[in-house]
Design goal:
The protein is mainly α. It has one domain: ATP-grasp fold, A domain (Dna Ligase, domain 1). The protein is built from 6 helices and 2 strands, in the order αααααββα. The protein has a two-stranded antiparallel sheet. The longest helix is centred in the middle third of the chain and has 17 residues. The radius of gyration is 16 Å and the shape is globular.
Length: 132
């Protein structure tokens, strides 16, 4: 919403693209991550921050070790190439975080000055990890 307001005000805003929740789901499915997440979170005590941090790190490893499906990687690479191989920001925007009159994008991790196809793909996975 803020970027839209800037554009409307005539402020230059760099081009970008969105990686959809469908891409996230394809990645999770292709790497069979969801059953592991479910098992790790089953019965977890939300007040045990040490355990939460351990589980978060273990979920992060699942994403880190996961392989980006070809169709998702190709779509991201094509969109990134359309920007001209420039340094970009890769940031999160959870599916249920935006309201009609407010945006909460960036509630998870944001990575700045990311340049190169492989670096962008890695940053996308790190954004997904930051959901946990």
């Amino acid at each position: 919403m803020s970027l839209s307001k800037l554009l409307t005000a005539g402020v230059p805003v760099p081009d970008g693209f969105h990686v959809t929740t469908a891409a996230y789901r394809i990645f999770v499915e292709a790497n069979r991550i969801q059953p592991h997440i479910n098992k790790l979170l089953d019965g977890i005590d939300a007040n045990n921050t040490g355990r939460l941090e351990d589980v978060s790190a273990r979920i992060g490893a699942l994403f880190h070790d996961g392989e980006m499906p070809r169709e998702v990687a190709a779509a991201i690479k094509t969109a990134y190439a359309g920007l001209g191989n420039i340094a970009v920001a890769v940031r999160s925007s959870a599916t249920a975080e935006d309201l009609p009159d407010a945006s909460f994008a960036g509630q998870q991790e944001t990575y700045l000055n990311i340049q190169g196809e492989n670096e962008v793909l890695a940053a996308v996975k790190r954004c997904w990890v930051s959901l946990f």
